[in-house]
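Troubleshooting: if your tokenizer reports a length mismatch, compare your output against this known-good record of 244 residues.
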Amino acid sequence: MRAVLSIGLLVGLWALIAWAVADPLRAPGPQQVLPALWQGLASGRMWPDIGATLWRVGMSFALAMAVGTAGGIVLGLLPRLDRWLDPWLVVANNIPALVTVVLCYLWIGLNEGAAIAAVALNKIPLVTVMLREGVRVLDPGLMEMGQVFRMGWPARLRHLVLPQLAPQMLAAARAGIALIWKIVLVVEFLGRSNGVGFRIHLAFQMFDITAVLAWAFAFVAVMLAVEWLVLAPLAARAAGWRQG
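Known-good structure output:
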């Protein structure tokens, strides 16, 4: 209920600003954007592009989380290797996303593989750093218990390491999903022929600010649903495990 009221307050503030500017072409208010958004969704016109963007987000997210989690665990457990590769992570985390996107398109081509690789490469270093820091604070008592009971590494990883890393994994996921979908829009803006970013590019060329906002809000709504319905419950479960 509080979230609904907060969003209502935001929409009211938006309407007030649009009324003060008094230029629907330059600063369209909710009375222009929301009907355009509803018409696009109700007619089905927006859904294919939203689906294409959501697919790219999902693939990039899965790849970044898998590679970043594995890398973070390895670096956390091998301090010597971490000391060698830490400068690489610092460099990778500070390369602008736009540079990575452009280079992937130039090296791989204007295709789906380049788009997904560009987004994942921007996210992998962040996940790696967050999981590495989580491994560094693992409970040594639990790890020693695993050695005492002669648990193999697969069993230790599944029953001792990953449950302790659940908060870090959820934090990386929640921060990453917000970052990834924004980079996906840039990827689509620069080099794809469908998706929300591509539609925003077309609206930009026509200087159609109402369409730009309608497409942006459509995908923001999808990402809010993912956050509230998937990531937030998982985060609550991870917190409950820690308290238990």
